[in-house]
Write a structure and sequence with these properties.
Layout (H helix, E strand, L loop, with lengths): L2 H26 L5 H20 L2 E7 L2 E4 L2 E2 L4 H16 L4 E5 L6 H14 L5 H8 L5 E4 L9 E2 L14 H29 L7 H16 L1 H7 L8 H19 L4 H12 L10 H4 L7 H7 L2 H10 L5 H13 L20 H16 L11 H10 L7 H11 L7 E4 L4 E6 L10 E8 L2 E9 L13 E5 L8 H5 L2
Parallel strand pairs: 6-10
Antiparallel strand pairs: 1-2, 1-4, 2-3, 4-5, 7-8, 7-11, 8-9, 9-10
The structure holds fe (ii) ion (2 copies).
The site of one fe (ii) ion (FE2) has 6 residues, from α9 and α15.
Length: about 475
């Protein structure tokens, strides 16, 4: 931490400590007493120094930690005691903190008045409201709303990205390669979409090459590729979604023991599964409200459009015939319900069933125009388990759930050690499915990644060192896991 930052934190600490001391001091001492004078002076000095840096200071307790504005103060011995005291003061008044706004005319009498009011408020029927009315328009006011979201500002280095975790050199090279092939896949698919929407001829060779690259990456490190599938780009939903569905399908294919060639064909067909959406009016794709029956009929045509689009791609016939099937089948259930509806006696193909699972999972865990807050991976898997046997293949889904893990890559976890971490991977055979995580730390209001921890690690007493208290979706904090997990 820089010297300036250390000084600021020290000022915060001084302010909080004298804030906690003063109610007692004004109650017990006369204004001419030295303790009274010194404490008043200390409070006014630290407040005025801090106001020179920021005109509004919000001090609050959030989940057992003290925050000044959005900065969490790291726990020192002094502050550990302060948290307990401050929590008592706030809870007794049904408030969440104090807001100090810069004032020009600021006298010792004002400070004393505030602390007297603070002491008195405790015996009022609605202490928070009473205090708020007493302090209305003044330099200090109680914070009465509990709504506090830690605004995570990623550590910038001038790039706006989080500092990546320190990988060993081998993994680092693989991570770079994986991320490159993801962006290439995205670029190639966007380009292909643009070309077909204006009726230009397109060739299968480029998409095939990027998928081949991803297959190589998959066999080198499955987790890296899987963590790429957590990328979410709201502005370009269809392309990002298609690349994610391709990755998830390929990973599932590998778990099922398919060969590299088979996985390549599966990945390529998954990449093309929604290609026919270019033929659906854009207003319908972006619609936020429910479809009318006519509109839904229109949307339901996209698997067939995908098939027609693939037929027009320049490629050898043998490959093309293999690519058609899963785009056609991806909205059909294994009970043959869904769409496109038709008379059929043959069951769905393996690739069709795989892509349907990957498609469901990515669609559920993404934010969409009609559902801005995405469903958590855990909820998504539960929803999918509810339609296993009718829409989704139950056996394949079991393998998929195993692959995603109890704590999917990218999940933010709050630990009982009061640390926050992001799930990196779950080693196979991990005790109770306990993952390896990257510890995240707030430093100067920024989020930085720290060392990698293993949640199955035990202390000398034979107990787990850390346990997960709660899981959060990374998007709740505006985080893209791949920014943290991959450089
Ligand atoms: Fe679709
Ligand atoms: Fe889809």
């Amino acid at each position: 931490m820089s010297t300036a930052a250390v000084k600021t934190v020290k000022l915060y600490e001084d302010l909080i400590l004298s804030l906690l001391r003063l109610p007692q001091v004004v109650r017990l001492h006369q204004p001419n007493n030295k303790i009274y004078i010194d404490n008043l002076q200390a409070f006014r000095d630290s407040l005025q120094l801090l106001w020179q840096m920021t005109p509004s200071l919000n001090i609050r307790i959030h989940r057992g930690r003290i925050y000044v504005n959005e900065t969490r103060l790291s726990s020192t011995k002094n502050l550990a005691v302060a948290v307990t005291k401050l929590t008592e003061i706030l809870e007794a008044r049904q408030i969440f903190g104090f807001r100090f706004c810069k004032a020009d005319n600021f006298t010792d009498e004002d400070i004393v008045q505030f602390f007297q009011d603070l002491v008195q408020s405790r015996s009022m029927p609605s202490p928070g409201d009473w205090l708020a009315s007493r302090l209305e328009g003044k330099w200090v006011s109680p914070i009465q709303d509990s709504d506090f979201k830690i605004s995570i500002v990623l550590s910038t280095d001038g790039t706006g990205k989080a500092k990546p975790i320190i990988w060993n050199a081998g993994i680092r090279t693989l991570a770079l390669k994986a991320k490159k092939s993801y962006s290439r896949a995205l670029a190639v698919l966007t380009n292909l979409n643009d070309k077909i929407s204006v009726g230009e001829n397109v060739n299968v060779s480029k998409p095939r090459r990027v998928v081949q690259d991803m297959v190589e990456g998959l066999f080198q490190n499955e987790n890296l590729l899987l963590s790429l599938s957590t990328i979410r780009d709201y502005d370009d939903y269809t392309c990002t979604h298609s690349v994610n569905v391709a990755i998830l399908s390929m990973c599932l294919g590998k778990r099922l023991g398919l060969s590299k060639i088979q996985i390549m064909v599966l990945g390529l067909s998954a990449l093309f599964h929604d290609l026919g959406k270019v033929d659906i009016p854009i207003d319908l794709i972006r619609k936020t409200s429910k479809f009318t029956p006519e509109e839904y009929d229109e949307v339901k045509k996209h698997p067939l459009h995908s098939v027609l689009r693939i037929l027009r791609i320049n490629s050898d016939h043998a490959l093309k015939s293999k690519l058609l099937v899963s785009p056609y089948e991806h909205h059909l259930g294994i009970d043959l319900g869904g769409y496109p509806s038709f008379e059929r006696a043959t069951p769905l193909t393996l690739y069709g069933r795989i892509v349907a699972i990957a498609d469901h999972y990515d669609a559920l865990t993404s934010s969409r125009s009609y559902r801005p807050v995405p469903i958590s991976p855990e909820q998504a898997l539960n929803i999918m388990l509810g339609i296993a046997g009718s829409q989704l293949d139950p056996l394949l889904l079991k393998v998929f759930v195993n692959m995603i893990g109890i704590y999917p890559i990218g999940t933010l976890v709050l630990l009982d050690s009061q640390e926050v971490a992001m799930v990196m991977e779950t080693p196979s055979g991990a005790e109770q499915g306990r993952p390896n995580c990257v510890l995240l730390e707030f430093v100067d209001n920024n989020l930085e990644s720290r060392e990698v921890i293993d949640l199955s690690e035990k202390g000398d007493d034979g107990r787990f060192r850390r346990n997960i208290l709660r899981c959060f979706h990374p998007s709740e904090f505006g985080l893209n896991p791949s920014d943290i997990l991959l450089e």
